[in-house]
Write a structure and sequence with these properties.
Helix 18 (528-544) runs antiparallel to helix 19. The chain is α+β, with helices and mostly antiparallel strands and 824 residues long. Among the domains are: 52-135, Phosphorylase Kinase, domain 1 (2-Layer Sandwich); 141-320, Transferase(Phosphotransferase), domain 1, CATH 1.10.510; 364-507, ABC-type transport auxiliary lipoprotein component (Rossmann fold); 510-624, Tetratricopeptide repeat domain (Serine Threonine Protein Phosphatase 5, Tetratricopeptide repeat), CATH 1.25.40.10. 51% of the residues lie in helices and 12% in strands.
Length: 824
């Protein structure tokens, strides 16, 4: 017999729980006060903490409760391990149907052995209660993690991949979870995700065990077919997982309403708000993957968790899955058709206006901003990615020498690698008028590059396409020719000195050039092993061509990077960086990168403020679109008490490289130095969304919180920064110190830990000194800052301007340090 809707009178299938047309519950009255994440909850009845259950389990505390049980943390006295005990609610103990579902849950999950699924140890009955003993997972629910702070893209994809791995394993065994939600996913401290609570799990082909009128699952995560009471398969888990992905990426649920009926109606009838509307900074393919998981028809969804997992892996690697690329093309076509349908009479008006203004004369207005998109690798060899990235770098570098152009730098550009965003969307995000796209073929010692210049706004329009075919020895000459051709097509007039520089491109030794590109590929990652690999490649380039100035710049950059990251002391790094930079200057004094390296050495190692400033300004003069010297100069200007000029340079650097996490960190520091703490925190939080382990951002965040006296938040930032470094001992010291005496004691403990370590391994004295400073221990702070001064620590110049040192400024010993550094 059909179930008739009391609201719209529509006949629904007998098993339907909600009307397929209006979402009205068919078996109960809607509760307008119910939560959007409501799960059936039983009254609390269970063993008391401290009691012994079943002769072996000591109850510690209640962990949570749901529709199918109450869960406690307990100690298994027999096996000496911490477990989670799940009990069937006492009031259901005589309900054979509920007991059958409870047993089935244990049997289903016990058959699963996977790192992303909570392990079941046993099922038993004791003291009139049925229970399951499960592994105790230390951590927090994904819902709690999302509520605490929006996840960065990398973290969301990492958790998503793990959940997909667990679902794939369950589905292979014929088990459908049917209650996937963020509250049923635990995330451990080391980032491992585990699917919990198979209380609604259904073995494929088994009986559907539900009470009449009972809606299983959580409303906001229900698939349309689940809400309609239809038979479900693994695709219902795909839908619910799609809701979780949406929630991780945006911090919001895709289907919302003031009461259950409104939520169900949204699930059945309404599309979710596009992720791109809520988080425009996320790559477009991400939204398409989530959209495919949330297709209302199961036949249009991912057919398996394995296929969804493959796409998540591709996105994590920066690639666009073929199926998602097709969805992007269809979406773009739909947008274009919609735009055309709205044009109508407006087209006639626009054309008339263009004729009247003379825009059909064939002349192109000069364009003053450009982005070179990551060039596409058509070599057929993924191992040549370094060469293709090098082509993008070189073309950016050639165009960057043109002062009348604003050229977006490499770091921001590489965010778009393999992401098929529409060109106008990229142009709007980067605030540029023109875009260059290209492809690279390589065969033997010849390179073929096809470049396309696109007028990006309001709609993309091809302005010029050219294919270049050169021997490897002539690649730099080729990039110079491309830059001059692009400038000409953009109606940009070159200054005489710019013409000279672009025409000065020389032939290269192919082996040296390839080794240099490999070095750059690793250097950009700035990890300890990558810097080691980069040095080997740069030294190989120098050995292949001892006259190749860029190889020496690379060697200098490695040693500067090692010094700034605290991997080696200044006494080891500085002489090698100086020697390499001096050789590069001797070989090619017109390279902006040479002068930027020299500026870094003079400023942060030699504390030669005038010399450092002169080198930074020379680098900017040689390459006006090179953001690194502007970022460095902004800090030098703050250190020498010129904050207004400092701000103009860091803002200009961000105009050229808006997505660069390092420069955003520099900007936040500049804001800190002028006591704009709230602004600094806002910049850092935004940066951490996409770069959650960025050390400069975390370091600045803890300082800003400290200056605002938000000590719990500052402590969390300290913990996060040590976790990013993999320094577990320092994390443990913070935790122990906080228990002993709060925030100051936590920092003191961390300082003592690093001080003890410094007796057997290199630890920058600066790090220890800043910890003692924040802990309010002035004598200890000054002692370690004096050691940092003696070691010429590259961070010491910041004592001039960083407000965390305000508590020391009246101390004669601190003023003496400033005098010795000529910062008084």
């Amino acid at each position: 017999m059909a179930a008739r809707c009391p609201s719209c009178n529509l006949d629904n299938s007998p098993d339907s729980k909600f009307c397929r047309e209006c979402g009205t519950p068919l078996s109960s009255t809607p509760d307008k006060s119910s939560s959007l994440t409501k799960t059936l909850v039983a009254p609390k009845q269970g063993p008391a903490p401290g009691s012994i259950f079943a002769g072996r389990y000591e109850i510690i505390r209640e962990l949570g409760k749901g529709g199918m049980g109450v869960v406690y943390q307990a100690t298994d006295g027999k096996l000496k391990r911490t477990v989670a005990l799940k009990f069937l609610p006492a009031e259901w103990i005589h309900d054979e149907l509920a007991k059958e579902r409870f047993v089935r849950e244990a049997q289903a999950v016990a058959s699963l052995d996977h790192p992303n699924i909570c392990t079941v140890h046993e099922i038993d009955e004791a003291e009139g209660r049925m229970f399951i003993s499960m592994a105790f997972v230390e951590g927090e629910t994904l819902r709690t993690r999302i509520e605490r702070a929006l996840l960065g893209l990398d973290e969301a994809l990492a958790i998503g991949r793990q959940v997909a791995e667990g679902l794939r394993e369950a589905h292979k065994k014929g088990i459908v979870h049917r209650d996937i939600k963020s509250a049923n996913i635990m995330v451990t401290e080391d980032g491992q995700a585990k699917i919990m609570d198979f209380g609604l799990a259904r073995v494929r082909g088994g009986a559907l065990l539900t009470k009449e009128g009972m809606t299983l699952g959580t409303i906001a995560y229900m698939s349309p077919e689940q809400a309609r009471g239809e038979d479900v398969d693994q695709r219902t888990d795909i839908w619910s997982f799609g809701v979780v992905l949406y929630e991780m990426l945006t911090g919001q649920l895709p289907f919302k309403g003031e009461h259950d009926q409104a939520v169900i109606y949204s699930i059945l009838k309404e599309p979710p708000r596009p992720i791109s509307d809520l988080c425009p900074e996320l790559p477009a393919p991400i939204g398409q993957v989530v959209g495919k998981a949330l297709e209302k028809s199961p036949d249009k969804r991912y057919p398996s968790a394995g296929e969804l997992l493959d796409d998540l892996r591709s996105l994590s690697e920066g690639a666009v899955p073929p199926g998602i690329a097709a969805r992007l093309r269809k979406a773009k076509l739909r947008r274009r058709k919609k735009a055309i349908s709205y044009a109508g009479l407006a087209v006639v008006i626009i054309i008339a206006g263009m004729i009247a203004s003379g825009l059909f004369t064939g002349h192109l207005k000069a364009m003053d901003s450009i982005a070179v998109l990551p060039i596409e690798n058509l070599t057929g060899d993924p191992g040549k990615e370094y060469f293709v990235d090098g082509a993008t770098d070189e073309l950016i570098g050639q165009l960057a020498q043109i002062g009348s152009l604003r050229v977006i730098s490499r770091t921001s550009i590489m965010k778009y690698k393999a992401l098929k965003k529409p060109v106008p969307e990229i142009a709007r995000e980067l605030k540029v008028k023109a875009v260059v796209a290209g492809t690279v073929h390589r065969a033997g010692d010849r390179v073929r590059i096809r470049v396309e210049l696109i007028d990006a706004l309001p709609e993309e329009r091809n302005l010029w396409t050219q294919t270049y075919d050169r021997a490897m020895t002539d690649v730099l000459v080729m990039y110079s020719e491309m830059a001059r051709a692009i400038a000409g097509k953009m109606q940009v007039k070159l200054a005489p000195q710019e013409e000279t520089r672009l025409a000065a491109a020389r032939q290269v030794n192919p082996e040296a050039y390839e080794a240099y590109l490999q070095g750059q590929f690793h250097w950009y990652k700035l990890t300890r092993p990558d810097l080691e690999a980069a040095l080997q490649y740069f030294e190989l380039a120098q050995a292949k061509d001892p006259t190749y100035a860029q190889a020496y710049v690379g060697i200098a950059s490695v040693w500067i990077g090692r010094q700034q990251q605290g991997f080696v002391p200044t006494s080891e790094a500085a002489p090698k960086a100086r020697a390499a930079a001096a050789k590069a200057l001797e070989l090619d004094g017109m390279l902006a990168e040479v002068h930027n390296a020299l500026a870094g050495i003079k400023t942060w190692t030699d504390w030669d403020w005038d010399g450092g400033e002169a080198e930074y300004r020379r680098a900017i003069e040689l390459n006006p679109n090179y953001p690194a010297p502007r970022a460095g100069l902004s800090h030098l200007l703050n250190i020498t008490k010129r904050p207004e000029e400092a701000m103009t340079h860091i803002q200009r650097a961000l105009e050229m490289d808006p997505l660069n996490a390092l420069f955003r960190g520099f900007y936040a520091m500049d804001l800190m130095y002028v006591h704009r703490y709230d602004d600094a925190i806002a910049v850092i939080r935004d940066t951490l969304k996409n770069s959650p382990n960025d050390l400069i951002a975390l370091s600045t965040l803890r300082s800003a919180y400290h200056m605002k006296h938000l000590y719990p938040e500052a402590l969390d930032a300290w913990k996060a920064s040590y976790a990013a470094r993999g320094d577990q001992a320092a994390e443990e010291a913070l935790a122990l110190g906080f228990k002993e005496g709060g925030y100051p004691r936590a920092l003191q403990r961390a300082a003592e830990t690093l001080a003890a370590r410094s007796r057997t391994a290199y630890v920058p004295a600066w790090q220890i000194g800043t910890l003692y400073t924040r802990a309010g221990m002035k004598d200890e702070a000054l002692e370690w800052l004096k050691k940092a001064h003696q070691a010429h620590d590259p961070n010491m110049p910041y004592i001039s301007v960083d407000p965390i040192f305000d508590i020391l400024r009246d101390d004669p010993r601190f003023r003496d340090l400033l005098r010795q550094m000529n910062l008084k």
